[in-house]
Amino acid sequence: MHENNPARLSRMLDAMSPTFAPFAARWDAEADRRRQLRTPENLKKLMEAQKNHTSARATAAQARNQLTAARKASKNPFAGDRRAARTADKAARQHRTQAKGALKVARKSYPTTLNRLAVQAHALHAVPATVATYAMSTPQDWAIWPSATSAGLVVLNAAALLLGRRTVTAPVEEGLSAEERALCERLDPSYWVQHADARGLSGTVTTPPAITSAGIECEIRLDGKWTVKALRAAADNVRALLGAKTELPMLIAPGSRGGWAVLRLRTRSAAPDGVIVWRPGDAFGVDMVTGEDVHVPLGHRMLIAGMSGSGKSTASRPLLYAASAGPENVLVIIDLKKVEGRLWDHRARVAYTPEQVVLLVQELVDELNERTDVLPKGQATLVPTAARPRITVVVDEGAEVMSSCKAVEVITGYTEKGKPVTEKLDALEGLDSIARMGRAACIDLWWMTQSPTYGDGVPRQIAKQLGWRLGLNVESPTEARVVFGESAQDKGWKADELPMPGVAMLRNGKRTPDPIKVRYIDDDAVVALPNARIWHRGAAPAEVPAPAAAPVIPPMPTEPPAPAWDPGAWLDDWSEVEEFEEFEETPAVRLHLVKDPVPVPAARPAEQAAAPATNRDRVLAAVVDGARTGRDIVNRTGINKGTVSKLVKALVEDGELLRDADGVITVAPTQAGEVSA
To answer: Domain check: are 322 and 463 in the same one?
Structure first.
């Protein structure tokens, strides 16, 4: 036990040393300054100033005596002797003042040594304390507290200097690299205090560094004007003082108490070396500081950004697998580059062309509106089921979608002569709706881009809704601020300094800016994954769907639909219409009532015959089936009311529908030429 006492005392003194190091550093700096000023030239100037000041004082005293004698000799204030004496006295006093000022300057140029000044300062309290002790003491009772207090101040001054000048021996572990050893030596408080002033870091003191699983960590005490934010702004000065490499990740964070900061140098990684191969059930990645698994749960809107070559697509594969696993999860991918989507077409619905993108987005918006309509009262989000699974919509390369899917011309129907009717649709409007309202309907948007700048790789309105941010290496600090926020870089979220590839940062409101080593899935492993359900609106869930290379859309009839018939033209009771519809569905001979002969258009070409059933046809069919208002059409078709309003207006303008003054919608007579009875 006694053998450990010296070591324990040494560690205790090492711990106290940083506290007094600034005091000792200032003391030594002031002593050195005074010593440098005490030159022979400054001494001559001081002696000359003292001589001039003594002479000026004597001249001023003599002039004062002459003025007093002149006043006694004559009572007339305007007498010549008195005026001359006053002038001489004024000049002598001005000369004395100037000499006194010159003496002060000379004394500053040749100051007293700091040790002599300390002795004089301690004498000011030691002498009175000794006299007070003598005066207050009696032969029976000695009052030693005045002298003890004075002696304590002297000892405290000397002890502070000794502890502040103490050379602290930082324990250096075995097995450190040459870089880590050099950094630990420069983080030593004795080295830091000596060189901090030269780097503009005066007022900061480090504690002995510690080695962690992520590298080197030490605390920095902040004195005076220093704050954590100010120290972050001086990060280049800190790096220069330590001689750290430019590419070495360095983080300055708030300490556990006020007035302290924590400096972390990531010279090591807690993650395994080399590539971490992903297997089903593994987490997204490994925290490179703590070594813990990092999981990214479903149900969040997310921005995934990284420059070309940073491993963005590879890093997202564990997430895509999770989004397509299980009966309650389905995956939808928008991939205009036609690269990553091809690997996942057996587990996800993929849109490769702008036409497929706008139709898919329209289908998703219709599904979104239907889900929000059936959302139970008092329930914030829909619970995913096999019938209504969670839909994760992944936009792979948002810049391509922004440039190619703003005004896409698609076929929405056909005229009586078989000519296609086209309409320009914008996919970004639907994606904006999904980003804003998809959370309640269990439709989550993941926006991936290698150009994370507003107006280029991610729309500003959509970016505001993406609460989770996954960033790999980006090209510039500007892009890093777009990904993680304007003030994020000051807090350590520097995605532009991440190594490439496969290292990311995840900001979700809980994590610190610790890098994550992402697990790796190669192309062959993705292709070998088992088939999963391919989502289509209104389709029943299947256990093992067949792989699909592109979205499958039901084809149009090979012949144009027969002219519709308006039962309201001759039936007043809607129950009779229902009976008629039931009768029509039974296998009986169909009777046709022809009002006017209607020419049957020629059959459409083969490519037109395979055209998709459009929303225009669905709206027209709903009116034929008895829908008379916009709400009826929305309820029957599931299409959002904005799209229904546009299509009804277009059909009225084309003469296929009629709208009366009360807003009732019916089929035009030319479309109701032939009905079944």
So the answer is: yes
Predicted confidence at residue 597, as pLDDT, reads 47
Retrieve residue 369's tokens.
């509106």
In DSSP terms, 156 is beta-bridged to none
* d(C-alpha 659, C-alpha 628), whole Å: 9
pTM given for the model: 0.54
Same domain, 357 and 489: yes
Per-residue pLDDT tens over the stretch 520-561: 999 999 999 999 999 998 766 655 544 444 444 344 333 344
Cβ-Cβ contacts under 8 Å for 328 (sequence gap 6 or more) = 384, 385, 386, 389, 390
Query: SS3 breakdown of the chain: % helix, strand, coil, rounded to 5?
Result: 45, 15, 40
Q: Is cis: bond before 22, omega within 30 of 0?
A: no
DSSP β-bridge partners for residue 265: 216, 250
The amino acid present at 656, given as its one-letter code, is: E
Over the stretch 620-648, which tens digit does the pLDDT of each residue have? 888 888 888 887 888 888 787 778 888 88
**Close Cβ partners of 494 (under 8 Å, ≥ 6 residues apart):** 249, 477, 480, 513
Domain count, the chain: 4
pLDDT band at 316 (very low <50, low <70, confident <90, very high): very high
Residues 644/630, Cβ–Cβ less than 8 Å: yes
Largest CA distance in the chain: 154
Question: Which residues form the domain of 576?
Answer: 567-676
Residues 319 and 407 in one domain: yes
Q: CATH number, domain at 257?
A: 3.30.980
Name the pairing type of β-strands 390-396 and 443-449.
parallel
Among candidate residues 465, 497, 527, the one where a domain is terminated: 527
Q: List Cβ neighbours of 22 (8 Å cut-off, separation of 6 or more).
A: 164, 193, 203, 205, 223
Same domain membership, residue 131 and residue 17 = yes
Kindly report the number of other CB atoms within 10 A of residue 293's CB atom: 13
